[in-house]
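Q: I'm writing a short methods note and want an example of a predicted protein-small molecule complex. Could you take the sequence and the SMILES for LPXRUNBV and return the bound structure as tokens? Please keep the output block clean; save any remarks for afterwards.
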Amino acid sequence: MLEFVFTRRFAMAHRLIHGSSEICATPHGHNEEVRVYLKPVEIKPLDGKQNVVVPFQQAKTTWHRFIDGSVDHAFQLAENDPLVEWFKQHEPQRLSRLLITPGDPTTELLACLLMSKLNCFLTVEQSGLHCEQIEIMETPTNTVRFTGNPLEFIPNTRPPEQCWWRRADMSMSELEG
Ligand SMILES: Nc1nc2c(c(=O)[nH]1)N=C([C@H](O)[C@H](O)COP(=O)(O)OP(=O)(O)OP(=O)(O)O)CN2
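A: Understood, no commentary inside the block.
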């Protein structure tokens, strides 16, 4: 099987407030790498002329726009983190820089959320591609790899229309508009 593998770097901050790791309960940051594996939805031979499944630029432009324009330097917070309220009250102009997650923003959850978002882009753009695997390198010594249907793994706590990871847009929360 043929696959496209695209890698992007981003900086982020987060904290885990629900008790899995006390050291991670204070806000801290990582320089992370996200690697996605895209496969054609349909198997057909190359055409003998251009010989592309899809041009790379077409396959990755929206995804990279999302990673570079939204995820890069975002602050990832659980939806019930008191810091969300703090930003609402003190820095509402920065709400669009918050990436809000159902429960703690761990790397395994982020992998599933980003994969779901990417598949929304690929579907809406009728790219003929589907992401079946994603890896997030949180630190040089910790990587999470996810393969499968991310919606089976993401906590089921909100109606679909309130899930930014199910929309083909640049949003990372429901905090605005
Ligand atoms: N299952 C998970 N466990 C932890 C996560 C996570 O996302 N999923 N995240 C963290 C923290 O974000 C922490 O900053 C990174 O963990 P840590 O292992 O301390 O990172 P190091 O690179 O410093 O690890 P070394 O073993 O020292 O190389 C914690 N747990």
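A: Remarks, as requested: Residues 21, 24, 28, 106-108, 138-139, 141-142 surround LPXRUNBV (CB under 6 Å). The chain has one domain: 4-166.
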